[in-house]
Amino acid sequence: MFSSSRRFVAVALSGVCAGAILSACGSDSGTTAPEPGEKLTVITAFYPLQYATQRIAGDTATVTNLTKPGAEPHDLELTPRDVGHVEQSDLVVYLKGFQPAVDDVVAQEADDHNLEVSPFANLTLTVPPGAEDDEHEHAPGDDHGHGEEGARDPHFWLDPQRLSKVGDGIAARLSELAPDRAATFRDNAAKFRRDLADLDNDFRTGLATCRNRDVVTSHEAFGYLSRRYGFHQVGITGLSPEQEPSPAQLREATTFVRDHDVRTIYYETLVSPAVANTVARETGATATVLDPIEGLTDQSAGTSYPAVMRANLATLRKGQACT
Ligand SMILES: [Zn+2]
């Protein structure tokens, strides 16, 4: 679909450019350093990558996000306009395997100007989780095969240490694109790293002593967060927030909540709370928002990644009975 429209555009342009100056009509993008003072054009796939890129680039780049505010990023669809922006950008920052539409458009339009962040994010978790890090053998979400067997968990940004590493990766790549601004990127990355270290420290201290270590959630976005701070994530459905749980999954979740004296079921901002509410109603637990920060909306508990993360910390401290 994209390739045929792209071919049409290319043909049309080559006609226009036939007698024009070559440099003004060249189709290369992201291969030449920007002029001094000229902003880089960077496209990001979803909010946490946008936030990290803006922090690193500062005012040296125009950063545009493909996932619009309030949209759910997992099943993003792109417009022809988005495709054009991707093609013309200096760099596309994305996470392979998270948004199929973005994977496709990067392969077709940004093969030579993209940054795939998973090597920096170090995606070590798969879903269903490996047996070695799971002592709750009968927890719902562990063994009924939602999603691909062994699919990588993409939600690295809920672990500040992983997001920090991604910031370093973005800084390195931007420095290649605009070597004259490398010092700026290096300084911004250092500041980003310090802020995330502070955030990490707040989580570590705030969640050190909690009565309940089982985090029961309708969307399994908190695997890396749970791993980092010593929780055990129990998903009611699976990696994708729009997956409907089966009656058997719901029964398992309800039993787990009762058996483990779980008081709080978490759901997220961008999808319906129906599943969490069902389990909560049947068990007497409370359903509350824990934000996977896949996008910000008017309903978000803050206007930036660290603000929403700190709101999540407060929610977890209450929900997990931390002292
Ligand atoms: Zn997700």
Automatic annotation (TrEMBL):
Ranges where the record places region Disordered: 126-155
Biased composition (Basic and acidic residues): 136-155
GO MF annotation list: metal ion binding
PROSITE patterns: PROKAR_LIPOPROTEIN (PS51257)
Alphabetically ordered keywords of this record: Signal, Transport
Cleavable signal peptide: 1-23
Gene3D superfamilies linked: Nitrogenase molybdenum iron protein domain
Pfam families: ZnuA
SUPFAM superfamilies registered for this protein in UniProt: Helical backbone' metal receptor
Source organism superkingdom: Bacteria
Gene Ontology biological-process entries: cell adhesion; metal ion transport
Family indicated by similarity: Belongs to the bacterial solute-binding protein 9 family.
Annotated protein name in UniProt: Zinc transport system substrate-binding protein
Species whose genome carries this gene: Actinopolymorpha pittospori
